[in-house]
UniProtKB/TrEMBL annotation:
GO molecular function term, any single one: nucleic acid binding
Domain of life: Eukaryota
Classification via Gene3D superfamilies: Ribonuclease H-like superfamily/Ribonuclease H
Name under which the protein is recorded: Tc1-like transposase DDE domain-containing protein
């Protein structure tokens, strides 16, 4: 089938011969072009259009007339998703009286739209959002006030001893699920799996401290003695002995107990105060993403850690690997995120 440009070029040749050499005789002209294999209906259509309308070129595309994907329908789909980007294809198709397949074709092929996964974030109350908006600016200004100040943040998480118990999606591939052994089709989850407490600190340059790992829960005494005194102080001395640092813990109660605050003050470690901290703001604390990457690596382990020491060795290896590969990229945007949040709100970085 000829495209429009080719049809127009053919029409110009036919009409040029018809007017000049053919003496306006369609049969003579047809005999000249018949050997080119032009369908007679196409040839006589060109002659008829010229005689009736004095027009050589076509003004429409080939093929059947568009009945469904008309400009009006395309605009309706565009307007619907502009007004409500969260509407499902089933709901949208029902509302526009289209089939789901037709709507999908219009979205992807005609309008260049693509469905994207929503980002899951903690739900912050209006009061928490207001505090984070105000305090993110304070943290940013603290970092900017003293030249060379380095941000250090810490956090703790719980990791299942059994790698298969790490939360995440699991898949299997097959032609017929009936022929797949049951152990490949299911992923068993223990109700109360054995797990370890892991604490670590990470700085703005992507350096990560050695972890503190325990089978107990975090207390203010454990936090002060084993996390801050035994690990954080050495971490600061190793990487930032001659530079000012700003320590940013999360808002867990043990992080702001009196013994902890006293120890930080005695060791001249500038800390984000509790009333200046940002509640429920993981989007500005990349250590949360660091945990996710470490857990994803741990989930690849084949064997369950049989004891605490074995888990420590495995986690130390994994956290160093993740830090060297992704630490700097995770942390380098913290300041700009804090500034943007302080100016535009807690969800503005998405």
């Amino acid at each position: 089938m000829l495209n429009k440009a080719e049809r127009d070029a053919l029409a110009e040749r036919v009409i040029s011969f018809y007017c000049d050499s053919g003496a306006f005789d369609s049969k003579v002209t047809w005999q000249h072009f018949k050997s080119e294999g032009i369908p007679s209906s196409t040839f006589y259509g060109i002659i008829k259009r010229y005689n009736d309308e004095k027009r050589v070129k076509t003004n429409f595309s080939s093929g059947r007339p568009v009945k469904i994907m008309t400009p009006k329908v395309l605009n309706a789909v565009d307007n619907l998703y502009t007004e409500n980007p969260s509407i499902s294809e089933t709901q949208a198709a029902k509302k526009l009286k289209l089939s789901v397949s037709t709507l999908g074709h219009i979205k992807r092929k005609k309008l260049g739209m693509k469905s994207r996964v929503k980002i899951t974030v903690p739900k912050a109350s209006p009061e928490q959002q207001n505090r984070s908006l105000k305090n993110s600016g304070k943290i940013y200004r603290k970092l900017s006030r003293r030249k060379g100040t380095v941000l250090i943040m810490d956090d703790e998480t719980y990791v299942p001893a059994d790698p298969s118990q790490v939360p995440g999606r699991h898949f299997y591939t097959c032609r017929d699920p009936e022929n797949v052994p049951i152990d490949h089709k299911i992923n068993q989850k223990a109700k109360f799996p054995k797990r370890f407490l892991v604490w670590q600190a990470i700085d703005e340059l992507g350096n990560v401290s050695r972890p503190f790992i325990s089978e107990s829960t975090m207390t203010s005494e454990i936090y002060k003695k084993y996390c801050l005194k035994a690990i954080l102080s050495k971490f600061i001395k190793k990487y930032h002995e001659n530079a000012p640092v700003l320590f940013w813990p999360d808002m867990a109660t043990v992080h702001y107990s009196k013994p902890v605050i006293t120890w930080l003050a005695e060791n001249n470690i500038d800390c984000v105060e509790k009333d200046e901290n940002c509640p429920n703001l993981p989007q500005a604390r990349p250590i949360e993403k660091f945990w996710a990457l470490c857990k994803a690596e741990y989930a690849k382990e084949k064997n369950t850690a049989s004891n605490l020491e074995e888990f420590k060795k495995t986690w130390l290896k994994i956290s160093k690997k993740v830090a060297s590969r992704s630490g700097l990229n995770l942390m380098k945007g913290v300041r700009s995120k804090l500034r943007k949040i302080s100016q535009n709100g807690v969800y503005s970085i998405y």
